[in-house]
Amino acid sequence: MKLICIGRNYSQHILELKSEKPTEPVVFLKPDTAILLKKQPFFIPDFSDEVHHEVEVLVKISRVGKYINSKFAHKYYEQIGLGIDFTARDLQQELKEKGLPWEKSKAFDGSAVIGKWVSKSNYQSLNKIPFSLLKNNQIVQSSNTEDMLWGIDEIISHVSKYFTLKIGDIIFTGTPSGVGKVKPNDSLKGYIGDQEFFSIKIK
After folding, report:
1. Between 187 and 12, residue with greater pLDDT
2. Minimal CA–CA distance to 88: which of 101, 106, 109?
3. pTM attached to this predicted model
């Protein structure tokens, strides 16, 4: 089981980080040890002073696939969810400046929040799903999957060129603007529409 993450998939997030708009999906991986255990708080690691929340719509792969055409990609998942890609932004910036991989800033233990799963059939269109993140009961990130540069099926098609997708693999589809630093005692809650998908505490 692997976590496949997509970066720079929302224009406003690209702008807020002063990054270049990519010509194809930016892909990176997290190991399964990155998954934050259910009902556990997120502990800010001692190697970062600036860990950011990044709320993302998730997709769980339901069948094995390789070189999947985007028009058939919908057959490879039945459930969607919501999660957080925690990012040690200060460490990421340092690694970027040195031309080094990002994994230490993105794939550390506990850096992946995975909320509950629901059937994709709950939604009329997966290309128009509103989602949001509340920090201490204030909305800090709010967007819609229609704002993605690459939709879910396009992402699956692209990723499957490089990695065989297996049952249980999870794709993080990218975060919108509004990312920000978390502090001890913060409370984070994620929503698709008005339905809560996760709630965690920061320590």
Report:
1. 187
2. 106
3. 0.95
